[in-house]
Structures are given as C-alpha cells and as structure tokens.
Fold each of these.
Amino acid sequence: MGKKQFKAESKRLLDLMINSIYTNKEIFLREIISNASDAIDKLCYISLTDDKVGLERSDYRIRITVDKDARTITVSDNGIGMSQDEAEKNLGVIAKSGSYNFKNDMSAEEAEKDDISIIGQFGVGFYSAFMVSDKVTVITKKYGEEKGVKWESTGADGYTVTECDKFKPGTDVIMHIKEDTDEEIYGSYLEIWKLKALVKKYSDYVRWPIVMDITHQEQQPTGEEDKDGKPIMHTVNVTAPETVNSMVPIWQRAKTEVTDDECVEWYKETNRDQTDPAAVLRINAEGVVSYKALLFIPGKDIDNGISGATKKGVKLYCNGVLIMEDCDKLLHDYFEFTRGVVDSPDLSLNISREILQHNRQLKVIGQNLEKKIKAELEKMMRDDRPKYETFWKNFGIHIKCGVCDEYGRFTDFLKDLLIFYTSEDSMRSLKEYVDAMPESQKAIYYASADTVKHAMALPQCEEVRSRGYEILYLDHPIDETVLQQLRMYEGKGFVNILTEDLGFQTDEEKKAAEEKVVENKELLDFIRDSIGDEKLKQVTLSSKLVSSACCLTSTGGFTLEMEKYFRNGPSEEMRKLRADRVLELNGKHAACLAIKKAYDDGDKDKAAALSKILYAQSELIAGVEIEDPTAYADLVCSLF
Ligand code: ADP
C-alpha cells in the first residue's frame, strides 16, 4: 500500500514538530496517555449499556513498556480503538478537536521563530510523539470490529495504513525514539525511572491505572544455609507490574473523604514547604464554568528562591491531566503567592501560555477564585488577627503593589485587605481606623519613617495624638504611594502629618501664628543663616509641637522619606538628592527660648551654636543623616 499524504496544514505542523523548536518535548507522554485515557473513557461508557464489552471497571489500564534495544516506548490501552477510517481521519488531520486557526501566510521558518506560541495554538496531541520519535506505529482495533489496523509514519512525508491482526480492542502507540544528538539525549526517555517521573509529573491523576514494569531489588533465600542453619539471602532483581499514578486527585475527593489536615500534608509535600499554610481553600464550582480548586495561602514566603520550593502560580488540570505547571496568569500578581490546583473539564488540554490570557473560561475561573481568596483573607483578618498579621508580613507587599498597579484598577478590590500599624504592636484596617474615629476627626492621619518606632517618635505626632486621633505609622517606601493611590477612604482624605496642614487651627489661630512668625522674622532668619545649610529653605514657628522643641519637615514634592529611600539608590546622583527642608520650632520650648535669650542678649555665637544643635537634632529625629556628625559632637561639647 502506497504512502498517503497528510493534509497540508498537518504537514506544516509536523515539520515544526520534527525539527522541533518546541522545548518542552517531554509532554509527548502526557499527550499519548491522555488519548489512551479518553479511549478508555469511551469504551467504559459503552460498557454501561453493552454487556458484550466484557470488561469490569477495574480491568481498564494503560500500559507503558520499553524496549531499550529496539529504542521503542509503547503506550497501550484497552480502550475503544480506531477503525481504519478513524485512524486515517484522526491521525491524518491535525487537531481536529482543538481550537485551531492555522496562519496560512506563515512559513515554517517564520513559525519556528515564533516557537511555542504557534504550537500552543493547536491541539498538539498525538503529533507530539514526533518530537521524540522518528517513526510512530499505531496498532489499533476498534471495539466491535473484526480486524485491526496498523498506521505508521516516519513524519511529514506521509503515512501508511494497513490491515493487521489484533486480538483485543484497544490501541498500541509505538514510538521509535530518535537517536541522540548533541542537543538532546532522546535515549533518556527509554529509562523507566524517567518515564515514571514523567507520569508522576504530568499524568499522576489520570483516572485509569498507568502500569509499568518496575524492577525492585529484593532479599531472597539462596536455598543454602550458613553454619548456624540460617538461610543465606541474596539480592535479586524482581520485576513486577506497578501502577505508577495515584489516579484520584486529592482535589477531586469530597470534603467528607479527605480532611483539611490531609490537604495540608499534601501541600507540604508537593511544595516542599515545612510550614503549615495559612489557609486552605477547597472549591467545587458548578455553573457557567465548572471546576474544582484546592488552593493554599502559604504560611511563609516560599517565593524567595532559597527554599527550593515549587514554581510560582497555580497548577492547571483538565480532568486530572496536567496542562500547566505554573499558571501565573490565572490570578493577578497581587495574589501570586497562592499555590494549589485548579481542575476544570471545560478547559482545552492544549492551552498555551500565549492564548491563556484570552481564554474566557480561565478568566471566569480566575475572577471567582480571586473573590474566594479575598473573602478567605477577610475572614482571617476578622477571626484570627495574629495569623493575618503574619500573612501580611509575608505577602502584604503584593497587596500594596496591587493597589498601585495599573493606575489603580484593583484599588477598590484590595483596599479592605490593607492593614497599617497604629502603634508598635497593633495594626488596623482602614475600616477599623475610620470606625474608631472620634466625631471631631476629619481626616486619616499618617506619618512615615523607616520603622514604626521612629515614626511614632516623630514630634509632629504629638499634637495629633493629644487630640485622641490615631495615626497610621508607615514603615515601607511604597506605603505613601498606596495612600496616594487610594486618595480617600469612606469619604475621608489622607493627611501626611509631617508635611501637610493638619487643619486643626481656626482662622484666627492661623492668623495669630502668622503674626508671630512675622514678629520673630529677624531671629528666624538669623537661625537659618547661622545653620548655613543651603537646603534649609525656611525656619518657622510650629503649632504642631507640644513637648518637643523642633521638627524637620520638607517643602516641595521631594520629601524626607524619598530622600531616605534614594540614599541607597543605584547612582551617586540619586544618593545625593536632598529634600528642601523646613525647620519648625516650638516657640514655647525652653530650648527655643534659650536661643531667643542669647540672641536678645547679643550673644550671637551662643545663639548660632544652639541653633545648629537644634537643627542637627531635628535631622536625627527625622531619621536623615546629619552632614557632619563630628562637628555636631564638638558643638555639643563646647557648651560644657
Ligand atoms: P485530540 O486528542 O485533541 O483530539 P490528538 O491528535 O491527540 O487530538 O488525537 C486525535 C484523535 O485520534 C483523538 O481525538 C482520537 O479520536 C484519536 N486517538 C488518538 N489516540 C487514540 C487512542 N489511543 N485510542 C483511540 N483513539 C485515539
């Protein structure tokens, strides 16, 4: 019988497969196993109404055998098989069932450049066998037919179909593995351990047993005895068929069958994480898109690359067959710490990363899961605050970045997950903060520093606290941006107590304060000039200070916090950036009165020295570097 030609588009894809650019060659086994599993599903279904099938559910299996000398891997199933017509139709036309849209104007070379993206658009399926084989033989017999069929192809040049004898229905796919090349050791696929690992990795949860002959070493008696009459043992290799997949995925089992603790153990094992997850989510959704999901919020940050943990993202399965190991597009980055599995029969087996973003089902699943994750986190925040705070330490940064990402697209969704310190050991959500606000409080106050302790010690906080108002103490450079992105929360604006008008003063008080500044202008100018820092733009009297003598604030868009942030910046230029400073003095404080007295008494040297000390102190309190610490120390000592 002469060679038949593949349909034009199949030939094109075969070219690609054979000269393969597709890096992930090992998925061929998954594809072939998945076809075998489907074929068994079909026969099993027929057997429900047809006694003649003569197979019990427990009789179905997929068998993988290897012949190293002949360099073949055979995947056999006792499923429905194919008739000659079907073999030609199914194996001669690429991706019949896949959603495929071949780009006619694309040459093989062009396609090659496009690599995975193009292959991913087709149902790779059966053809993936050609990534590792130079010849594929399919021996199949359709249930109910007399004769078997032998389909054989060495690749793009076509295939032959002939009748053959086969005793039982089912299919053997015999892959003749390519010779090794410099780039690829194809022979490694002939190793039992390798195949077993591939089954575990990609097809562990296929519903039917995948059986391989596995060789174990066993201690057996030799038949001889030692001088004490004990049997002498020796090690022998025993080869026996073994089911290498676990078949029923944990996420497919009902809550009554599998406890949360078992899920936790499974998480730890599969993610190589010794820490209990902070939350376990078990979801069984039926609706527009059906899916089961078993998700975990890790108890510690396992993305840091040190622990050797699994890749980011959620594993994607379609009916127990792994289709993507690290689906990082299912959830937005703000929830990227989530681990686990999503299994949906509505997904296509051959989904690729590239088309993933546009996949409608996945979008629906992603949205639903995000709602569930958010609800779970809100529950944790409500019911187990210490746990939530640990979660926040581990992953809060993802949520904060999410608030700022994409021009605030997710701000609304995420804002109620934010928590901030309101004292060294307690954190509040914005809702809790606003709910606890006294009636007189008009805004949400915040202060930032490098640590909560430093922020709390800022003199500007005093007055706010003395009114019974809470302050959000920000200790991360992104925090200010988060609040700027939020702009308001429940109609309340955010006020930076370091740089903004707190709005506490009446118009009269403001006027009186301004007059005071005018009155003391000469002295204030003297203080500024004697400090002699070109970045000190203004010295003024403050109404924010209660018991502190002074504080340092900034004017203009570049704040002291930004200055601190840039101090570790990558370029010398960045590290040198300094904010324009304003020194605010508490006119009633003894230190300020001492300067005034020295000045009024004509002791300008003393007034200048005291001014410099006060300025250096304000810098220290604000957590910025003082220019010349030695000069400061000398100055203090000169007063003794
Ligand atoms: P897909 O599985 O996406 O349909 P494939 O290229 O993997 O694409 O397979 C094409 C078709 O060939 C399958 O739909 C099925 O009808 C048939 N087929 C492949 N392998 C087997 C098998 N082991 N037993 C029966 N039919 C098979």
Note: The pocket of adenosine-5'-diphosphate is lined by residues 31, 35-36, 39, 77, 79-82, 90-91, 95-98, 123, 125-126, 171 (CB under 6 Å).
Amino acid sequence: MAKERVFSGVQPTGNIHLGNYLGALKQFVELQDEAECLYCVVDMHAITVPQDPKELREHVLDVASLYMAVGLDPKKAILFVQSEVSGHAELGWILNCSSYTGELSRMTQFKAKNKGRESAPTGLFTYPVLMAADILLYDTNVVPVGNDQKQHIELCRDLALRVNHRFPDTFVVPEGRFMKSGARIMSLDDPTSKMSKSAENIHSRISLLDTDAKIKKSIMRATTDSDMTIRFDPENKPGVSNLLTIYSALSGMSIPEVEAKFDGAGYGDLKKSLVTVTQEALTPIRDRFDQIRHSSELDDILDDGAARARALAEPVLDRVKEHFGIGRLK
Ligand code: AMP
Ligand code: TRP
C-alpha cells in the first residue's frame, strides 16, 4: 500500500512555544518515519495581519530551523516555504470561489481575531480557505494539528466534498489528527485561554528558545489556585491541570503518574520539578537550533523542499483546473 501523505504548517511569527511543540511539532516528528510528510512554513498566512518585512524573513528561517531542531529530518520529510510554491495561491483562489461567506463567518478563530471590528481584512476572513488549499494541493490524507484547528479542518473537508460532488474525484478528503494529551496547552498566567504567540505578557508562554532563567521565571510565577492539592481537574483547577499536562507531555509520564509523584507535595515542588523537566527538554532543541539557523545548508534544504513540493502539487493543480474548465487543456 502507498504511504499516507501528511501535510501541516506553522506560521512564521516569533515565539514558537510549548503549545505549538506539544500540540503540533511533536506529532510531525513521530509521523516522518511512517508517512510521506510535507511541512510548510506558511508565510502567506502570516501576512493576513501586518508584518514587518525584515522580521518576517527572519522568522521564516527561524521556523524552518526549529522544524529541524525538534527532530525533523529533511531526508525524510519535505520542508519548505509556502510562498515558494505558487500552487497554494492558485488553488486558494479556486477554493474561494467554492466557499460561502456564511460558513467563513462562523469560524471561531476569525471571530476571536476580529472581535468588535466592523470591517475585517479580507485575507483574515478567507484564511481558512488558503489553509484548505495548502492541504488539498497535495492529495493529503492526514493533517496533524492542535485542537484549535478542528473547525478549519472541518471546513477543508466540506470544501473538498462540495467540489467532489460537482466534479467527482477532484480532491482527496483529508482527516485531522489531533493529539490527545497536550493537545491544548493553556496560558501560564491565564489558564482559561490557550498559550499564544501574541499574548502581551511574555510569562504567559514558554518559547522553545527561552533561556533557562526565563523558563524558571515563567513557570514559578504561573497562576495556580488557593486549594493546595495537586489534582488534574481542568474545570475547577485549570492552572494546576495545565502544569500537569505540560509535565506529562514533556516527561512521557501519564497524568495519574505525575499526580501520584506529587501526592501530598506543594505547588512549589511541582513547579520546581517542572522547571527542570522543561529545561532538560528544551536545551537540546536550543543547541541544535543555533547550529542549523546559521548553517549554509539551510537554504539548500529549503530549495530542495520547494522543488519536491512543486513536483507533487503540479499534477493535482492540473487535475483541478481541468475539472473546473480553466486554462486550455494540456
Ligand atoms: P500557529 O502558532 O497558530 O501557527 O499554530 C501552529 C500549530 O500549533 C497549530 O497546529 C496549532 O494548532 C498548534 N497550537 C497553537 N497554539 C497551541 C496551544 N496553545 N496548544 C496546543 N497547540 C497549539
Ligand atoms: N492555520 C494554522 C494555524 O494557525 C496554520 C496552517 C496553515 C496549517 N495552513 C495549514 C496547518 C495547513 C495545517 C495544514 O495553526
């Protein structure tokens, strides 16, 4: 049987954090040995909000380097930059013409990002359609992402099915793969909202490239509660439960094992131990990142990735255009 095709993407904004790592990147690495994987740095998604051009370029290389620092091997997986494969934009437009403003208005991420504004940037509104194009352009079977992308994956499937209904066998209908534990890492200072790249308080998140001192500071001041027992109960004890989730995901211990380890201990003990576990997990990533980011290989790897991605995208895009009747027949 042919290997399954896997696609996923991460935005090149700064601060790739533990949520991105545990919710997405860790799965990417697991999948590279069993499937044909494409992992993309989605710079065209990043410009749905204003970006500083110089910083954006740097961040593209940062994320590509982080991909490799967390264990992706460019010999196994295709690593590339979205804007370097023009098929994403082309298919994005075609799918825009098959989507409805009503369904896009229901996307919770759009609603959250656009809170209170009367008019929204059009790119922000159609962002999930470009994401669908990213996925469908490669006849993708599986999309590993964090839980927060569930609705976008559903939309992608809806679009694929809708087009297939009109033009049979145009798209492969993909499935999301959501990680069970650690799928949603919450913010350290407000454990009722998810850890995010853009939150103002830097201590709300642990970035993968944080120093040991920063890791310690952020964890030690994480919000807990006044109840004093270490127990996994996201509803009533969101802060402590989030620390347990991170502990479990980084150490490989199950949540009940972590609970048992800290039975009768104080929050300070849990936090101190979590500081060590986190530092031990991130130090090797930081070291590899430093090597790769400034190596001359990085450009060659991304050139090669884009060429391989283009070769896979071309026949799919030809098929889509043929079915829609655009362009002359090849
Ligand atoms: P983004 O930073 O939005 O480009 O997200 C990159 C990947 O990380 C996506 O697959 C997200 O679902 C995932 N992700 C982002 N934030 C979190 C979080 N707090 N917890 C778990 N996964 C997350
Ligand atoms: N929208 C995703 C996020 O914010 C990033 C993304 C863009 C993506 N295109 C994708 C993820 C395709 C998976 C597949 O996290």
Note: Strands lie at 5-10, 36-41, 78-81, 142-145, 175-178.
